[in-house]
Amino acid sequence: MEQIRAFIAIELSEDILSAIADLQRQLKKQVPEGTVRWVKPGGIHLTLQFLGDVPVVKINSIAQALTAACAPFHPFSVTVGGLGCFPNAKRPRVTWVGVDEPTGTLAALQKAIERAMVPLGFTPERRAFHPHLTLGRTKRQATRDQAQALGTLITTTQIPFLGQMNVRQVCLIRSDLRPTGAVYTRLATAPLSGQ
Length: 195
What we know:
The chain is built from 4 helices and 9 strands; from the N terminus they run E-H-E-E-H-E-E-H-E-H-E-E-E. It is an alpha+beta fold. Helix 2 (59-70) packs antiparallel against helix 3 (105-117).
């Protein structure tokens, strides 16, 4: 059975992507060479649920469930800014920029999408939803000193407000892993129509 890697995400505005590219350029100058594998700005999304390997025959059902889950929500705006890492600054594996949405709409939307995917065989994430945009991942071969230097940089760098964007739709996205990096294809769009 043919399968594809897929996830559900909010695509970012050009302004936000441009601000992220500038931030990555700044950080690259300060991080020891060979420490981080940076994500290309065009490949950065606000992921709401990673589905993993999905049978192609399920794509239409996923798209319909996603549309139904998103329909009751009205468009809202998110603010992007602040630098952090997972799991912590002593062992930074993922470097990210934060996403803030103070009304709780983003968290509610993410929960509604997870619930809509359960009947299709996708289990909700056990960890709490922490909206973020991944800038880069620490390379396996990075030394402890390199990782600690990265952690220190993350905790001491004050990232200003990078921008705000309106969220009007959620996308189902295919991810093809290639040696040059992942290639993303939008498979379906679910509008936030507030109905």
